[in-house]
Amino acid sequence: MRSLPRWVLVPALIGGLLILLPLVSMALRVSWGSFGALVTSEPSLQALRLSLRTSATSALLCVLLGVPMSLVLARSELRGVSLLRSLMLIPLVLPPVVGGIALLYTFGRQGLLGRHLELLGMQIAFSTTAVVLAQTFVALPFLVISLEGALRTAGTRYEAAAASLGARPTRVLLRVTLPLMLPALLSGTVLSFARALGEFGATITFAGSLQGTTRTLPLEIYLQRESDPEAAVALSFVLIVVAVLIIALARRRVPS
Fold first, then answer.
1. Contact predicate 152/145, CB 8 Å
2. Which of 18, 106, 206, 215 meets the CB 3.0–4.6 Å disulfide criterion with 100?
3. How many percent of the chain have pLDDT more than 70?
4. Position 151 confidence tier, pLDDT thresholds 50, 70, 90
5. pLDDT digits (tens, 9 = 90+) for 170-214
6. What is the average pLDDT value for the chain, to the nearest integer?
């Protein structure tokens, strides 16, 4: 801290208050006397269980798809990689509802792929699978950014050394590259899980709000806001606590 100018503390404090003050204000509005009853109702528990299950599945898909994507973007020397990178990051800047519309026109009953899947008896839109796809669509870029940055920072000297000793590309990937990117992989996975957990716009557009099937906790909060504001505040607090616990637990496990 001694190496920093004192004026830096002022915008840092303002930024911290901008994030923390609304959360504190919401916590002060929670009706603690009826908190247990509000968050343990059957619709609330169904929404929480669905959110945790679909977010975990989405985070797994982000890992399975995001690791190869990051490797290609960071290590490939092919032309057009920069354009590919820009396209892969589009979900970061799109409003989630636009992402939901795009998914609907891809996997919906009359969508580009959905019409063919419909002939095979597979209906994706307005199902739990649609929730997972919507969450993965918005969360995947967070993992890709984390891993690509870590790969570029680490460089290729260790991989080149392993290859010069006769290690095949797959062995280099498993024994050298993946261990180097493990901290970034863990943090990126947690970030993707947290983003999926809070996803709303793409989910309600592509998957709808069917209780027990597609109504995740953010959707339940939105619906409760109109009919029971106290329940909406209580569920919002639960969502924040779950996200904080998961992020804190993951950060403890990330190697320094």
1. no
2. 206
3. 96
4. confident
5. 888 888 888 888 888 988 999 899 999 999 999 999 999 999 999
6. 88
Tokens 């109702």, residue located: 41
pLDDT of residue 82: 81
- SS3 track for the chain: CCCCCHHHHHHHHHHHHHHHHHHHHHHHCCCHHHHHHHHCCHHHHHHHHHHHHHHHHHHHHHHHHHHHHHHHHHHCCCCCHHHHHHHHCHHHHCCHHHHHHHHHHHHCCCCCCHHHHHHCCCCCCCCHHHHHHHHHHHHHHHHHHHHHHHHHHHCCHHHHHHHHCCCCHHHHHHHHHHHHCHHHHHHHHHHHHHHHHCCCHHHHHHCCCCCCCCCCHHHHHHHHHHHCHHHHHHHHHHHHHHHHHHHHHHHHHCCC
Structural domains in the chain, sorted by start: 37-147+182-253 (1.10.3720.10)
State the pLDDT confidence band at 153, using cuts at 50, 70 and 90. Answer: confident
Query: What confidence category does residue 68 fall into, taking pLDDT thresholds of 50, 70 and 90?
Result: very high
Scan for tokens 């969450």, then name that residue. Answer: 135
Round to whole Å and give the CA distance between 22 and 45. 25
Residue 108 phi, psi dihedral angles, 5° rounding: -70, 175
- Residue 221: name the closest of 35, 45, 44, 55 by CA: 44
